[in-house]
Amino acid sequence: MSYDPSRSTKSLTFSPQDNNGDTDQNTNENRKHSVLDEKALRVDDTLFIRDQRVLKISQSYQSILDSIGEDPLRQGLLKTPNRAAEALVFFTKGYEQSIRDVVSDAIFDEDCENMVVVKEIDMYSLCEHHMVPFFGKVSVGYLPNKRVLGLSKIARIVEVFSRRLQVQERLTRQIAEAIAEAIKPRGVAVIVECLHMCMIMRGAQKVNSRTTTSSMLGVFREDPKSREEFLALARITPF
Ligand SMILES: Nc1nc2c(ncn2[C@@H]2O[C@H](COP(=O)(O)OP(=O)(O)OP(=O)(O)O)[C@@H](O)[C@H]2O)c(=O)[nH]1
Ligand SMILES: [Zn+2]
């Protein structure tokens, strides 16, 4: 059974009021934009705007230090609010990027029908519930339909969506949908395996639990053989 890109495009759209590109409410008929049309959500187009952003976050961290009973003026902490602000801006730099910018011109006409698999792409994100890191590996496969995507762009797409506040399920789906929309392949498969620090350092405190999520589109959803081939090729090395 072939993969109908027009069907997939519909499932790739999302509500403009949802600033993380989430499609959790798939019944929402008001969705207007595709993943490729999504604009960067944070535009630091001048150094001044960026500095203002860092300053604002830094002031918040100063208040946090005070609230946890620390002395923000002690020598070791003097630069901490600024460092922490810079780190948070980096951890969320996916808001500054759009998929269209990232993919740019790296879509190539190619008469390749065989499966392409890029496995074990490192990813680091922040869970949106606790703003605590979760991290792991992403493996991506697709079956081309006369077009292939520059390999590094797959890693860059992972970076755009993971450097935001996320839940693992949405991250997995967004990666699959972005690739589907960019090159309209016959199918896309994504597997993400992560450790969630919010389950390890606090809360349930389950040190060894890992979470695996998958998103199968097109042929991978419909054809068990393609799915099995992908799973065999993408077998993730335990970490
Ligand atoms: N589905 C999903 N849940 C996540 C993810 N990251 C964190 N969570 C969960 O988000 C949930 C938030 O639940 P709450 O009960 O509101 O928060 P909490 O009291 O801090 O929960 P505990 O972590 O159980 O202490 C927790 O169950 C987390 O494990 C994710 O990527 N996907
Ligand atoms: Zn969490």
Automatic annotation (TrEMBL):
Gene Ontology BP, a term: tetrahydrofolate biosynthetic process
Domain of life where this protein originates: Eukaryota
GO cellular component, one term: cytoplasm
CDD domains: GTP_cyclohydro1
InterPro entries associated with the record: GTP-CH-I_C/QueF, GTP-CH-I_N, GTP_CycHdrlase_I, GTP_CycHdrlase_I_CS, GTP_CycHdrlase_I_dom
Enzyme Commission identifier(s): 3.5.4.16
Region (Disordered): 1-35
Any one Gene Ontology molecular-function term assigned to this protein's record: GTP cyclohydrolase I activity
Pathway annotation from the record: Cofactor biosynthesis; 7,8-dihydroneopterin triphosphate biosynthesis; 7,8-dihydroneopterin triphosphate from GTP: step 1/1
Biased composition, class Low complexity, residue ranges: 17-28
Domain GTP cyclohydrolase I positions: 58-234
One Pfam family this sequence matches: GTP_cyclohydroI
Catalysis performed (reactions): GTP + H2O = 7,8-dihydroneopterin 3'-triphosphate + formate + H(+)
Gene3D superfamilies: 1.10.286.10, 3.30.1130.10
Record-stated family: Belongs to the GTP cyclohydrolase I family.
The name this protein goes by in its record: GTP cyclohydrolase 1
The species this protein was found in: Adineta ricciae
